[in-house]
What we know:
By secondary structure, the protein is an alpha+beta fold. It is 33% helix and 13% strand. It has a two-stranded antiparallel ribbon with strand order 1-2. It is extended.
Amino acid sequence: MRRDTVTVPPFNHVVLRFATDNPGVWALHCHVAWHVEGGMFLSIAERPSDLVELVDKMDSDVRQQSRNFCGAGSF
Length: 75
């Protein structure tokens, strides 16, 4: 993995291109809390259909623990 940064001027955008070969929900930015509060955070769901399959095949106890941890234990 490589860490690169880019400054995006106001009212502009950046196009990212990357291989989607690692199913998951990935954070795009950093862990600085006030950045998240300021709207400078993005989550990317990579290969969501594979994620559904991975969750379906997950051990039921682990799946329930994960849902409880995320506050989604009721579904």
